Amino acid sequence: MIVRKHRLWEVFLHDKLGYSWDEVHDIAEQLEHIRDYDLPDRLDKFLGFPKYDPHGDPIPQSNGNLPAFSSIPLSEAGITRKMKVVKVSDESADFLRYLEKQGIGLNEMILIREIQAFDNPSW
User: What is the model's pTM?
Assistant: First the structure.
């Protein structure tokens, strides 16, 4: 339920209040702890029952089920392969700003031309 609330709040903050994808995580961390049991379902309905949050993470349904999701990490895709970005890590606001600066966002088609130092998943 916490994950559901967190991701719904991220959608609300991003889509309705105009926060960028690098700002929503920390605020949603606070809002996810509101204990009103009707609020997540009302928020879900208000948002039009989104399936994914602004980072591409699936939003659990009220019964706990997750929408089907499959992908491969770009780090495993290989150079010269065209890929659609369907999910990004939200653990680093700096990384999200880097992606935005590069013009990379959800549902964008990208061609992997080279691997740069910041692309290393071990950072």
Answer: 0.82
pLDDT tens, 12-57?
999 999 999 999 999 999 999 999 999 999 999 999 999 999 999 9
| 63 within domain boundaries | no
> DSSP secondary structure string, 27-72?
HHHHHTT---SSHHHHHHHHTT--SB-TTSPBPPPTTS--------
Q: How many domains does the chain have?
A: 1
Q: How many helices (H) and strands (E) does the chain have?
A: 4, 2
Residue 104 lies in a domain: yes
Closest by alpha carbon to 14, among 71, 108, 90, 86? 90
Residue 85 in any domain: the answer is yes
* Domain residue limits at 111: 74-119
Check pLDDT > 90 for residue 116: no
Enumerate residues 6+ apart whose C-beta is below 8 A from 103: none
In a domain, 88, yes or no: yes
Q: What is the overall mean pLDDT for the chain?
A: 89
Locate tokens 């997540």: which residue? 40
